[in-house]
Amino acid sequence: MGQLTLFDVSETVLVDDERGRIAYVPAFIDADTARAWFEEIRAGVKWRAERRMMYEREVDVPRLVSHFRLDPPAEPVPQAILDAARRVTERVREPFNSVGLNLYRDGRDSVAPHNDHLNEIRKGCSIALVSLGAARRMSIRAKAAPRRVMHVDLEPGSLFVMSYATQLHYTHGVPKTPSQVGERISLAFRVKRPRVEGVEAASSGIYR
Predict the structure, then answer these.
(1) Could you tell me the domains of the chain?
(2) Of the chain's two ends, which shows fewer C-beta atoms within 10 Å, N or C?
(3) Which residues are paired to 16 by β-bridges?
(4) For the segment 95-116, what is each residue's pLDDT rounded down to a tens digit?
């Protein structure tokens, strides 16, 4: 089991082999910009609460969510999200056209271990996560032997990138914590499949 709490501004590669590539950039966005983006997105997005079936009963999703298509947007998008999309696209060099947002209100909010629904994204394209606000831990676990487990504290202004292949071989999630933590916003950029006659495909609702 490994734990990474990183302060280096350069990219740190956690995984890079036949099972995919996972990389972390702790200081992708400077602190002042990260704070400004958090405030704009927190106030400017229409957050919604969701419920879903789990273990044969309907439960509250433990976080607030939102989502925008960016190709082009069908509704007004906060400038901070557009700026973040441009920065991520320039860094990762993939044509991200969708962003899913999560608002973690405190340590009780979380995302269970999972992998992305690959039928919703373009084959071969990465998932890129920008974190704003309080730091929260991301846990990554291999699905098969060797069963490697990694924990990364996602700092505000950081970028976390997972290749398409990793979704076949790893799960990732943000566990609950008893610690007193502030609000966190995550922006999960993806390359979604083209719209069909202007209709967005059903979303999994899991954005990290």
Answers:
(1) 2-190 (2.60.120.590)
(2) N
(3) 21
(4) 999 999 999 999 999 999 999 9
